[in-house]
Amino acid sequence: MQLPYEIFVGLRYLRAKRRHRTISLNTFVSVAGITLGVAALIGTLGIMTGFKEDLQAKILGTTSHIVVQDRSKEGMAGYDELTARVEQAPHVLAATPFVFRQVLLTSASAVQGIVLRGIDQQRERRVTELARNIRSGNLEDLDRSAIQAGASSPDPSVPGAPPESTVQPTHPGIILGRELSMRLGAFVGDSVNVVSPVGPSNSIGALTMTPKIRTFTVVAVFESGMYEYDSSLAYISLGEAQKFFNMGTTVTGIEVKVDNIFQAAEIARTIEQALGFPYWARDWMQLNKNLFSALKLEKTMMFLLLVLITIVASFNIVSTLTMIVNEKQREIAILKAMGATRQAIMRIFMLNGLIIGLTGTVIGIPLGYAFLWLIETYWTFDPTVYYITHIPVHVQALDVILVSFSAILICFAATLYPSRQAAKLDPAAALRYE
């Protein structure tokens, strides 16, 4: 099969005049510009996608995919029956009730405002990754009201941890985040006080309000990798939370785990329709809408900004093709005199731009992957400062396709003006002085 002559002519025009050079310097610079633009785009999008997914994994390791609550009041009664109904919904893997309150946590040396969650530890391990995030102690000790002294050992990786446990046998258990544990100076076996200014049992006088205080024993320390959670989140058992906040047989809501996190919004609507009013379900994207919207906007803006690199590189294509048109006026005139149409002349120079774009894209994609591999392998961080040991990287196929399509489209657009100038060339005027 014989290829069209436009291909051979176009490739010839991209070469240098001297025979010992395979391509011209202008062609090399144009290809290099497209290559660097494509590599920079793939590298940036891979890093930003990796950070987003790493953050997403840490959030979903501590919180659930869907939260079901009663929109008409703060408490939710009959939660066992509601939990069973939620678990029967399609694509739901597990569900568990929870209590959510803001309290003060005090130790012998510090005071910290935190979020206290009451959980059923048997069902919680099926919904979140709390059990996997435990760094010292045992999650099972959360439901034990009496723990033998010395049964749990402190976390040796936590600075300042006491050498021996001093567990009080009459105090209920509490689980602290690693950063919160260090701030309070409270480790496995130590006692902390939970202070709540809200509740029917508070004695309120004319000028003062006596808060409700209860002592808990630290039975475990967890580390999720998210500073906000590790520094301001603590867990107690569901029954202890209901007693402490005088909630009776009600809970704050129900946590739900689904089989596909990207379909959580549709599953949440299904659950809401199954339960009916006044219950409402929110997926993890709604609960963290501001954060993930900001990450999405940042990724989009970075893509648009880095496309400018490719656009700048495309100016080299315009200048290269314009110079070729000026240098090859005699050859173009001869081709037109031999019967080449305007469309054929345009195709020759459009083909030049597409060859530059395709070559730069083909080289830029593996170069971008190599850059990401070097970043992921050799760029490490101190985990005590950054909560990560290396930069997370993940390249999506859709991003590679989008980058490749954008680069080739920009290169093609850069060929339009020089191609039209070449096609409008008058053979008689070009050969008049030859």
Describe what this molecule looks like in 3D.
The chain is α+β, with helices and mostly antiparallel strands and about 425 residues long. It has two domains: about 5-55 and about 290-430, no CATH class; about 75-275, no CATH class. About 50% of the residues lie in helices and about 15% in strands. The chain contains 17 helices and twelve strands. It has helices at about 5-15, 25-60, 80-85, 120-125, 130-135, 180-185, 225-230, 240-245, 265-275, 285, 290-325, 330-335, 340-380, 385, 395-415, 415-425, 425-430; strands spanning about 65-70, 90-105, 110-120, 135, 175, 190-195, 205, 210, 210-220, 235, 255-260, 280-285. The strands form two sheets. It has a six-stranded mixed β-barrel with strand order 2-3-10-5-9-6, surrounded by four helices. Strands 7-8 form a two-stranded antiparallel ribbon. α2 (about 25-60) packs antiparallel against α15.
Q: Quick one: overall form?
A: elongated
Query: What is the number of beta strands?
Result: 12
Estimate percent helicity.
40-55%
Instruction: Please trace the helix and strand order, writing H or E for each element.
Output: HHEHEEHHEEHEEEEHEHEHEHHHHHHHH
**Number of domain modules:** 2
For the biggest sheet, the summary is:
6 strands, mixed, barrel
Distance between the termini: 36 Å
Task: Indicate the proportion of strand residues.
Answer: 15-25%
Kindly state the mean pLDDT as a whole number? 80
Strand order of the largest sheet: 2-3-10-5-9-6
- Rg is 33 Å
**What is the SS-derived class?**
alpha+beta
How many helical elements? 17
